[in-house]
Write a structure and sequence with these properties.
The protein is an all-alpha fold. It has 11 helices and no strands. The chain is about 60% helix and about 0% strand.
Length: about 200
């Protein structure tokens, strides 16, 4: 039985997220050839295989959690407006995770807009679904938006998670399940709560 979101605390948030993966992980991911869980697990696995730190691994694992938590539901290729899943996800996590994690969740959409504005070749990496969502999300950033975005102290990690987001779309890739990453998630929660 899952706790009510209002009853979440540092000792049950990691299991709560795991329950979301179990219940909702098989949902279609934005018209991509992978499920939502496969997409996020692939990003985390690629980060781990490349020796990235726990913050990047966990941020990649959780970056799209808002698709599961948003009252607006998941994105589809028929959408005509953005559903702001990134903000929904960050709001669920911000009580338990440091700003570097919540910024990677909150700004991974903005990072796509940023990279399309500052590295035009990045656009070539985007799938049809990612291009569709880019158009709903405002397209490439303006010069003023780029300048403002570059002031974020977590910019480098946000960009790393964005690249992992695009990489995690392989239908045949095998990954560990959520339980493999849960200890890293708990370590970050515990360190953050201790620092509070």
């Amino acid at each position: 039985m899952q706790p009510d979101p209002s009853e979440l605390n540092a000792s049950n948030i990691v299991d709560f997220i795991g329950g979301i993966f179990e219940r909702c992980g098989d949902e279609e991911y934005l018209g991509e050839p992978v499920t939502m869980a496969q997409h996020m697990l692939q990003g985390a696995t690629i980060a781990e295989q490349n020796g990235m730190d726990d913050e990047i691994v966990v941020a990649a694992l959780l970056h799209d959690i808002g698709h599961f938590t948003s009252e607006f539901g998941t994105f589809s290729m028929n959408d005509t407006e953005d559903r702001f899943h990134e903000e929904a996800g960050a709001k669920v996590l911000e009580r338990f995770f440091p700003s570097v994690i919540t910024d990677c969740v909150r700004y991974h959409v903005a990072a796509k807009r940023y990279l399309c504005a500052t590295k035009p070749s990045y656009f070539d990496r985007l799938s049809d679904a990612s291009i569709h969502s880019l158009n709903l999300q405002g397209g490439p950033m303006s010069d003023d938006e780029v300048t403002a975005f570059e002031k974020n102290p977590n910019l480098a990690k946000i960009i790393q998670v964005r690249y992992l987001d695009e990489a995690g779309k392989h239908p045949d890739m095998e990954t560990p399940d959520y339980a493999h990453f849960a200890p890293a998630v708990q370590r970050i929660v515990d360190a953050h709560m201790t620092a509070q």
